[in-house]
Amino acid sequence: MAVPLQQSSNASLKYFNAGQWRWEIDCSAAQDGSNWQELRALTSGTVAFSPKSVDDTDFGSNGWASAAIMGNSWKIDLKGAVKGTGVKPNRVINPALVRLLNAGMTLGDDNTIHLRGWRTDELPLSFEGYAACETNLDDGKPDGGQNWTGTLTGKGAPIPIAKQTAAGTIGAVLTLNTATSVTLGLNGKAVAVTPSTTASALQTAVQAVTGFSATTVTGSTGGPYTFANIPASATLSVLSNDGTATFA
Questions:
Q1: What is the rounded distance in angstroms from the CA atom of residue 24 to the CA atom of residue 31?
Q2: Are 162 and 172 in contact (CB under 8 A)?
Q3: Looking at residue 167, what is its pLDDT?
Q4: Does position 137 have pLDDT exceeding 70, yes or no?
Q5: Distance, CA of 170 to CA of 111 (rounded, Å)
Q6: Sheet containing 189-193: which strands, arranged edge to edge?
Q7: Residue 44 or residue 163, greater confidence
Q8: CA dist list (Å): 119 to 85, 169, 216
Q9: Is the N-terminal amide bond of 224 cis, ω within 30° of 0?
Q10: Within 10 Å of residue 28's Cβ, how many Cβ atoms?
């Protein structure tokens, strides 16, 4: 008689900590990514993606309901303490928080925030995007600390980015888009990629290039592929492609 399959022991599993996000706000006037500032003194945060479904039940589903995801949205809810450096009356508030607070009391283009964030642990989450900004100063008693809350509602799709890596290295993301044949240039050395290339195979090819032995590649087959630990002095390029591949 076969023994029923038992539940696996979870004793060896390791738990992931909450709050392992780093958020940066673009404080440049043109919002061109030239002045990223870390949003500091956060106390809690929630990242939510909300797919939108429609009923696509038809005669062929034999009475079973069917749904299709036809849209999506994202939102970030943050809480933090108002902190600064120096001593009063010359304390300097975190510039990323100043940018959020100022944007929250405006409208139109001035209300739009350019932000990026990534998990600082092994969870493969990192993206950049633009968002509408709503902020509040949460007042309490005068003998308490000043806190704030903010809701950042995404404007369009979030863009996958590479996580920041160790000092002296950079990251990059390869997105094939419509390309079916891409040749990357790593310090001028060619590395071929197609939609059937796995991340592990691409990593092997990349690490064979002189100077890139510590570079890692992660992602799904067909991309986007996330590169980490690229030497900061490296020259990256797309030597050729038959579509709209990007590598940066």
A1: 12
A2: yes
A3: 64
A4: yes
A5: 30
A6: 189-193, 182-186, 236-241
A7: 44
A8: 25, 18, 17
A9: yes
A10: 13
Task: Give how far Cα 195 sits from Cα of 122, 199, 241, 244, Å.
Answer: 25, 11, 12, 13
Ordered by start, the domain boundaries in the chain are: 21-54+67-160, 169-247
Q: What is the pLDDT of residue 144?
A: 87
Residue 141, classed as helix, strand or coil, is: coil
The whole model's pTM is what?
Answer: 0.67
Distance CA 57, CA 67 (A): 7
Cα 77 from Cα 153, distance rounded (Å): 9
Please state, as a whole number, how many other Cβ atoms lie within 10 Å of the Cβ of residue 232.
Answer: 10
- Six-digit token pair at 117? 């964030």
Q: Beta 189-193 vs 36-38: how paired, if at all?
A: unpaired
Beta-carbon contacts of 95 under 8 Å, excluding residues fewer than 6 positions away, are: 27, 37
Q: Which residue has the tokens 């062929």?
A: 60
Strands 84-85 and 112-119: unpaired
End-to-end CA distance of the chain: 58
Sequence-distant contacts of 160-163: CB under 8 A, at least 24 apart: 160/126, 160/127, 160/224, 160/226, 161/116, 161/118, 161/126, 161/127, 161/128, 162/126, 162/226, 162/227, 162/228, 163/118, 163/119, 163/126, 163/226, 163/228
Question: What pLDDT is recorded for position 20?
Answer: 93
Rounded-to-integer distance, Cα 163 and Cα 198, Å:
19
pLDDT digits (tens, 9 = 90+) for 20-53: 999 999 998 888 888 888 999 999 999 999 999 9
